[in-house]
Amino acid sequence: MMQPGSTDGAWRGKDETVKRTSLESADCPIARALDAIGDWWSLLIIRDALRGMRRFGEFQKSLGLAKNILAARLRTLMGHGILELAPASDGSAYQEYVLTEKGRGLFPVLVALRQWGDTHYFEPGEVTTELVDRKRGRPVRTLELRAEDGRLLGPADTELRRLGGRPTG
């Protein structure tokens, strides 16, 4: 089974090493976004930051991640402008990791991933959690892609266009 753990951009499995290729120059926005996020640990750090966690120890306790791996992921997220360091909110000498506007912009991405995971990886009736509107206490609706006129859109209803109007593959 493949496991994260290298700070040098490699994934090491039992019998293999796979080097990560940088996607920062790719012409696909998804590829560039994944280059910034990196791996599942980073998404889980962002998830926890969206829940209000701010300190290294909080992230480590939540994730059970080795300190060196967590530190590397936090540095990467800061390097991409997703997290920033700020003085501790309690006035202590510590610093906290705070989501930037770019980082907070990942909220709908994580909600979509959560809803997809809930639908496809939990059995009906299996204990999970529910995302609710804090003000009303009601479940959040499933995210949907809609056209300007309100029509529900699926993959067959959309296409990518390069600037200038030419479709792209």
UniProtKB/TrEMBL annotation:
GO terms for molecular function: DNA binding. Residues 28-125 form the HTH hxlR-type domain. It holds the Pfam family HxlR. Keywords: DNA-binding, Transcription, Transcription regulation. InterPro entries: HTH_HxlR (IPR002577), WH-like_DNA-bd_sf (IPR036388), WH_DNA-bd_sf (IPR036390). Signal peptide: none annotated. Gene3D superfamilies: Winged helix-like DNA-binding domain superfamily/Winged helix DNA-binding domain (1.10.10.10). This is Transcriptional regulator. It comes from Melittangium boletus DSM 14713.
